[in-house]
Amino acid sequence: MDREVSQPRIVVGVDGSPSSYEALRWAVRYAALVGGTVDAVTAWELPGLYGWSAPAVDTDIDVDEARQRMTRELADVLGGEGAASVSTHVAHGNPAEVLLRAAEGAEVVVVGSRGRGGFARALLGSVSQHVSQHASCPVVIVRAPAS
């Protein structure tokens, strides 16, 4: 009975959208219920970088600035104390694939129903749809509150 029991890990995708903020709130509440930890993950992919044309944007991303921006967003959404309880991870790559890798071994992965891109009338965004179809753990998809 000397086995070490680790805390459940909850992974949540954060992209600055209202539904990702609701997903973050949900993840923190769930972690409190199960005694788990929260890993907030954000990712970026440069459009055009892998296509036939040259990238249309500056490819020099300041990772430290991205981490600071994410920390500020977490504090705005959760308050200072809540944000301090969340681990942040900023990565380059396809957001769905980054989330799937981060969610390996997690208790659950939480995503917003729609991110910053796509059509406003879409019920499910491309990232949340991809994660829901390929995750190796349960997936929770959270909608933003109706405005």
Map the helices and strands:
Elements: E1 9-13, H1 18-34, E2 37-44, H2 63-84, E3 86-92, H3 95-102, E4 108-112, H4 126-134, E5 139-142
Parallel strand pairs: 1-2, 1-4, 2-3, 4-5
What does this protein look like?
- The protein has a 5-stranded parallel beta sheet, sandwiched between helices.
- The protein contains 4 helices and 5 strands, in the order βαβαβαβαβ.
- The longest helix is centred in the middle third of the chain and has 22 residues, at 63-84.
- The protein has helices at 18-34, 63-84, 95-102, 126-134; strands at residues 9-13, 37-44, 86-92, 108-112, 139-142.
- α3 runs parallel beside α4.
- With 147 residues, it is of the alpha/beta class.
In short:
It is built from four helices and five strands, in the order βαβαβαβαβ. With 147 residues, the chain is of the alpha/beta class.
Defining key terms:
147 residues, alpha/beta, five-stranded parallel sheet, 4 helices, 38% helix, globular
Mean pLDDT: 83
Main sheet properties: 5 strands, parallel
Per DSSP, what share of the residues sits in E-state strands of 2 or more residues?
15-25%
Cα Rg? 16 Å
What helical percentage do the residues reach? 25-40%
Span between termini: 51 Å
Spatially, the strands of the biggest sheet line up as 3-2-1-4-5
Poorly predicted runs of 5 or more residues: 118-122
Total count of helical runs of at least 4 residues: 4
H-E order? EHEHEHEHE
**How many strand units?**
5
Shape: globular
Structural class: alpha/beta
